[in-house]
Amino acid sequence: MRRRIATIRERLERACESSGRGPSQVTLIAVSKTQPAEAIREAYDLGLRDFGESRLQEALPKIEALPNDITWHFIGHLQSNKARKVASLFDVIHTIESEAQLREIEKAGREIQAFIELNVAEEAQKHGIFPAALDDLVEKVIHYQHVHLRGLMTIGPALEPEMMRPFFGQVRHFNERIRGEWLSMGMSGDFEVAIQEGSTHIRVGTALFGERS
Question: What is the CA radius of gyration of the chain?
C-alpha cells in the first residue's frame, strides 16, 4: 500500500503541475467501501486522513473502531430515511439531491460540509440532479443552517479519461456559477483529467487498496 499511495501522490502532483495548481489544493479521499478496518488503519498509518464510504451499515463499525481525527466522507446514494443518521457520523456528504435529504440532515444538529451531486450527462440510470434543477436546490440549501454547501460532485459516464474532460469542464462551469469552493470529481482511472479541470476532491479506491474481491 505504501507504494500505491506514493504512485497516486506522484500522479496527483504531476496533474497539479500541468494545470498550475499546488498539490495542497487537492484532497485525496481513500474510498474504503468494502475494505476492512485493518486496511483503513494501514492507510491511516501511512498518513491518509480522508476516507469515503457509501453504505451506512458497513461504515458504522469502522467509524467506531478507527481514530477520531479521520474525516469521513459519505459518497454513496443517500436515502432520505437514513440521512439523519449519516449526518450524525459523517463530516462531509457528497450526494445531496433533494430537500427531503436536507431536512433530515438538519435534524442531526451537526455542521455538515455538503456537495450537490450533479448528473451532468443526464444519465437516467444514475443518481444526482440534472443541471436544470440545480439553481432551485441551491436556493433551498440556504435555509438549512447546519448544511454548508461547498460545491458540486459528479461521477460522470464510464468513458476513457480524456473523453471525460468535457463533462468535468461542464461541472466546473456550473460550480463556478453557484460560487462553489470545492469540486468533487475524478476516481482511480481519471483523476488526473479531473484535477486539470479543477477538481479539489478526488475519490480513489482501486488504485489505492487494489481490486475489490
Answer: 16
Beta carbons of 93 and 115 less than 8 angstroms apart: yes
Residues of the chain with pLDDT under 70: 212-213
Q: Can you tell me the distance from the alpha carbon of 175 to that of 182, in angstroms, rounded to the nearest whole number? A: 8
Q: List pLDDT tens digits, range 96-153.
A: 999 999 999 999 999 999 999 999 999 988 999 999 999 999 999 999 999 999 999 9
Q: How many CB atoms lie within 10 A of CB 111?
A: 11
> How far is the C-alpha of 174 from the C-alpha of 131, rounded, in Å?
8
pTM over 0.85? The answer is: yes
**Quick one: cell of 178?**
453557484
Q: Which of 52, 21, 18 is nearest to 208 (CA)?
A: 52
| Residue the block writes with cell 468494502 | 34
For residue 49, which amino acid is it? R
CA distance 92 to 67: 17
Contact 191, 12 (CB under 8 A): yes
Q: What is the largest CA-CA distance in the chain?
A: 45
Per the structure block, which three cell numbers stand in for 175? 460550480
